[in-house]
């Protein structure tokens, strides 16, 4: 065993030696091959003599297969030991053939690997040469660098030897001094930073926000440069807190701008926000402040009128609505005024903010980038302000509407309701001037409530007018000779406007429409609410509210004389100067009574009107005030105003034409007949409903009952000429009322701007107002018909023999009887004129009516004659000629009206039979009875012609051409 162990040891050493040689040959063949011989090439592969050829293998393998057979362990690690690896493969038993065979396989693998390596080297030889050249260049650069370093070190040693220790000390001390100076400056800066907070607070208290922000930003910049100091870190945090607090104070000051604009303060705030780079954020914040200010201010105003004792159980969102409902009725208008004034201040502040930004547009920078940014900022501010205007006005409308419609206005008096409408109207005007808003939502809501209120109020006015008419004594109410409706209190706020419109209509022909509109626009802008009340007061103050004049016309000043003067007695209407004026508005049992002052003339020269006329005018004034304050209901108000006049017209006709003795179409004009028929159909409620109608329909509910004349009015007394005074006062008061309505026609057309609605006004004046004077004839004809004994006249004419063949030279007795009655009428008319002013128009109309009645009676008497000879026709002409000649001495009326009516009828007896039909068709003013008598007398001997003409008359009567 010992021998065996020694053998193994020796064999192992041999193998190690062989392994080292083989490792050298296997692991570093390239080293031997790559050993440089010259700069141009490498050594070649070993010769065949150095390596013994192995025995012929049993199997011939290709180089690739041999290369693939190399174990992977040979290529894994650089420090791989192939000998030890191969020795580990030998087992306990040594077989020489296997060892030799394995060694041969390894040699073959070595050859293939060496061959492969050489092939790769030859392939990359050019790149290797280039790399070698680069290495040589690098070596050259390194040599030059080494030379420079050596030269520098040599010069440094020289400088060190030449400089003394004292010079280096001086330089060191100078450097220390510079460092100490920097430290001292930093310490002073830190000290200033510590004291800056107090100074910033002083600036903020003085509202010098721009200076405060500027100093604060400088402190922050300085703190940033000194952040190397530990104490500055805490100071920087404190400055950040100060900046946050300062921004909060800026925000608080910005919120105060919403309620009271201060130009200096706002300029400071904008400059401060500009330094912070938050100009756009400031506008956003300002918008929020305005919205919050509107809500908080409205809530505060309502709370001040509700009182602290009231408890509102509601969420914050419903708190305002609940509080509005708790405002008492007596506090409603004062609270409304305070609410409008408070909201006005906020709106005015925003308006002034917008004006400030228009004046102080952000200046542009010096470069294009700055120009673009500034332009963007300016555009953003402009758009933000415009959107803020619409939003702010929407919030104002919402708060105002919520309060306005939280209370039922139906129980309000009309004057109080007008006052409410005044605030609404003024608020809508402010909105239009503020942002061009028409406040459609507010108009719609107000119109609905106003229509409901006005419908009830108008029904009450019509009922009140009916009661006044039924209790009217038709006595003259003395007023000034120049009295007009504009002197009434109800027209006080409209007087200047109506007068200006009248002047404007006169100047329209002298001015071009374009220049007029431009002047009007410029005037309205110059006199806007924001220019008049920007510094002090509000448009909703009662002093300004009542005295404020509507500026609607160009180049025409609205004079303040439209209001009554306390010092001048000339401005007061005559009827208000009496010893006693008692207006029983709303009380049917109390009627307006006016007693003339002592010492005044018993025959006033002023217009004839009654207290009921004044009542109608007062209602018209109130109606127009409502239409002026709320244009959306103007047309409805004008329609109701027209109904007041129509009812008055119908009442005068119904009261004073019931005793019309003679039915004469010529007394009624076509327009008057149509007007009365229309009023009766549209406005008068039938007194008796048909039995089939159990309930009154909805249209009849809106109508007014038939008026009845007061029992105290006596129109049957011959001594008073059958109510001459009452009839004259009634008709002339109606004419005066029509004249007053005609004077305000331009204003009514101004209120209604749409052509279809203007057409209604034109039709009203054409069909109703213009026919007031036409009522004189039928009313005064009642006096004439009863002042003359027409029945006696007809009886006397019936006794006249119209069949005489010879022409008589003496007129009939009935003519003298009629003339005698007319003389008595003339004397009574003069007597009535001694205590009642009768104008020339009235005097002429009375005589005209008398003549018409007489002429109608003449034709009626002539038509009663069944037979008439030539002499009788001549007698008819003689009687009428005598009547006209005597009548011309009794009256100054020229020419005598309606005489052609009689003359044509008498002359028709002389018309040939073949032309009689044409005459009948052309003269439809005569009744069928008159025409039948005419053909009976004219065609006595021609029955066929009589029958034919009778058929023509019946046909005309059937067609409604004659009566």
From TrEMBL:
The Polar residues compositionally biased stretches are: 21-30
Q: Does the keyword Coiled coil apply?
A: yes
User: Vacuolar protein sorting-associated protein 54 N-terminal domain: from which residue to which, for each copy?
Assistant: 67-356
Q: Where is the composition biased (Basic and acidic residues)?
A: 579-590
The record's listing under Pfam families reads: Syndetin_C, Vps54_N
Give residue ranges for domain Syndetin C-terminal: 721-954
Q: Which GO terms describe its cellular component?
A: cytosol; EARP complex
**A GO BP term, please?**
retrograde transport, endosome to Golgi
Q: Does the keyword Transport apply?
A: yes
For this protein, the parts annotated as crossing the membrane are none
Q: Which UniProt keywords apply?
A: Coiled coil, Protein transport, Transport
Q: Where is this region: Disordered?
A: 21-57, 579-605
One of the record's GO molecular function terms: SNARE binding
Q: Which PANTHER family match?
A: SYNDETIN (PTHR13258)
State the name under which the record lists this protein: Syndetin isoform X2
**Taxonomic lineage:** Eukaryota, Metazoa, Ecdysozoa, Arthropoda, Hexapoda
Gene name tied to this protein: LOC117643514
